[in-house]
Amino acid sequence: MSAMTTLANQLRSAFFLASRDAYVKGAFVLPALLVALSLPVLLFSNANVHVMFEGAVLSLIRVGALFGTCLSMAGIVTHDISSGGLRAAALTGRGRGGYVASRVILALVLAVLLGVWSVLLGMAPLLGPRVVFEGMPAGELALRVAAHVLVGWTYAVFGMLLLWLARSPRGFASAFFAAVILGAGVLNALLLVPVAVLIPLSQELAFGAFQLIVPILPSSLLGDAFVADARLVVLPVAYVIVFWALSRRVMARAPL
């Protein structure tokens, strides 16, 4: 069986499982639930209550495309490990590579779908009488949305690597907690560990390391000082490639 055929079969299996997975459904329900709970405030607010449209959209994107992607993939990998699906999918070296690739691609697809879904839900504030526009250009808003989608993909792929390293069955609480710390940016904290190590040795070295690391933090794409250059795409893709390669090595050596 060729590598492309193996990958195609793994992708079909991945999308089939995702369409029925409770974690994926929860990722789509959560931003919708937040909108439903906020609608009474939007519709019946008094004159002193205002809703910032751009901020509301980006908040939903954080819940949907960023946290939701982490939750979906943490749940799917957890189910793979606990149900024996991982063993069935990865009996051969080629199958293991196809399995990892299928999950990385699925994570991107879910991040995009959750991003689009969150943007559509983000139109809800327009129903309210007290919507205020911050004046953010539409192009910048679209790029900020794309940044959240790509960073959500990055965090989710990193989370899958950690789960494959752990290789122990997890329940809902563990998968949800994993998604929370991933969505909160634990990857950025880990990348800053060298700075913390250098501080007792030399504050100058620590500051120099900090200046080098900050521009490559995934969270730098989401901050107030918005990045609108090639890093918006290059940085997430570079991290995903690294985590993808590490995941392949982990799976290649993992006893099943």
Account of the protein in words:
- With 256 residues, the chain is mostly helical.
- 75% of the residues lie in helices and 2% in strands.
- The chain contains eleven helices and two strands.
- The chain has helices spanning 3-20, 22-44, 53-83, 85-89, 93-121, 138-166, 172-183, 186-191, 193-198, 203-213, 231-253; strands at residues 51-52, 131-132.
- The chain has a two-stranded parallel sheet with strand order 1-2.
- Helix 5 (93-121) runs antiparallel to helix 6.
- The longest helix has 31 residues, at 53-83.
- The protein is globular.
- Rg calculated over all Cα atoms: 20 Å
Which residue ranges are poorly predicted, with pLDDT under 50 across at least 5 consecutive positions? Answer: none
Structural class of the helix and strand makeup?
A: mainly alpha
Question: Helical stretch count?
Answer: 11
What shape does the CA trace take? globular
Question: What is the N-to-C order of secondary-structure elements (H for helix, E for strand)?
Answer: HHEHHHEHHHHHH
Strand order in the largest sheet: 1-2
What number is the mean pLDDT? Answer: 86
* Major sheet summary line: 2 strands, parallel
Question: CA-to-CA gap between the ends?
Answer: 21 Å
Beta-strand percent range: under 5%
Helix content: over 70%
How many individual β-strands?
2
